Predict the structure.
Amino acid sequence: FGIYISPWDRNHPDYGTAAYNDVFAGTIREAHTAYGPVFEQWFDGAGGNDPKNMGMPYDWDLFNGTVYSVSPNAVIFSDVGPGCRWVGNENGYAGETNWCRLDIEGYAPGRNAPERDTLSQGNVFGKNWVPAECDVSIRPGWFYSSATDDKVKTVDELMNIYLGSVGRGANLILNVPPDRTGRINAIDSLRLMEFRRARETFFTKGEKPHCAVICEDLRSGQKIKSFAIEAKLNGKWTEIASGTTVGHKRIITFEPVDTKYIRYRVTDSFGKPKVRSFEVY
């Protein structure tokens, strides 16, 4: 269970002053004590692009501290974590190169966030461990509208998003908005089931273009800078795919090949890399 609450409050009379920070801290405390164990606290940019909001002195240390005081094991999401970071877009895609490290000192959510390409890729020598999380909606926008019933993302679109997020070492949050009855619309529900079946069949022989799944052992850090996948064809090792970072999980597709031997080779890394698993389909 996770909570999304934004300090961008355009209604409260104290908003725009330092006094509002205590008001919002109380909101956080109430939410975290009323709904049981909270796995994730999700903070957005808090109206960072709103000209009316430029004077609000957000106290992010207070907000984060309030979360941890009530839910010490919660993961805090924001532009700069500290638990995980926004990936810099709302399309569901992480960078082709995606480091879990990020420099956060001097930055804050919203108008003082790092550049979006930095959020997408992380910092190769970043001081803090702040992996990426990708958010995207199954429909245009974040809320339900009957006008978007014919614009729900296709299974192929969702699979491409999956490969561009989970398949690049990030976490995926797929927004599925309830309709005006408070239920998930039947179109969205059906698409979710189709998406599930697509993921299940993707990793079976012959259903889709062949792929490889590589998982790095992150207990000693993210080390792999680049890799190659090679198959023995006509007695010679031949590269059939390559990439940069791996992280928690990397899914890379390639044209099908007929071979008895395949290998994964780290071509550059920080120190000795550790691979948790290597699968081919």
